[in-house]
Amino acid sequence: MTPRSAVRPTAGSLGLGCRTAAPCGIYALGISPAFAQDRTLFTVSDWGGVYKSLDAGGSWQLVRVNRFNRSLALSPGYAQDQTLFVGPYPGDLAKSSNGGASWVDLVGSLTEFGNYDDGVRIRGGARWNVIGGAQPGDRNVISNNGLHGVYIIEANTDYNVVSGNFLGTDITGQLPLGNDTEGVVLENGVRFNRIGGAVPGEGNVISANALRGIAIWISQVTNTTISGNIIGLGCRWNQRPGQP
User: What is the pTM of this model?
Assistant: First the structure.
């Protein structure tokens, strides 16, 4: 575990990522169990970080800079042990034992963690790209990412292939490790892209993602081929990671 130093900018407005004079983008609020005595609050924001107030919200101090914060918990004995935990996603966990002055990253105790955004993004007219392949050695495991597994977007992003991958499972293809939205998204004018294929081994396993297995949306997404995939099941068909 590596200590992570606190960041303490000059006192000023509470931007919480959008840098305005009033709080915004708040995902969680933590109140000290001894609030009547210490008037201590913590809050986490989507883009800014972790903020602390010692005067019941009258002023704030940025004590940790990071993105995509989602959860916050104070120890029941915070007044004595000064311990709190912050859980950004995906797969991160940090602990402070001195009221936010310094942090220890606990992610080493977790087995899997993903990217904050998409696993793979193809956009802006990129063509003829191949993600994966029919042979086991070609396979990618694209899982536990903060948005999509694979995101193909924008006009002229054509003739791309996504095949033979595990999207939303662990390396065995049997246990769930879903992406936080869809497994695959094709959007906004992409054409002639293929997800899976007819050749043995070209099918993807697309399971256990938080929303859809595959989504195709917005105008002019045409000539898409989706074939040979396992969507919502494990790679041996006998275990069910599942789509919600």
Answer: 0.59
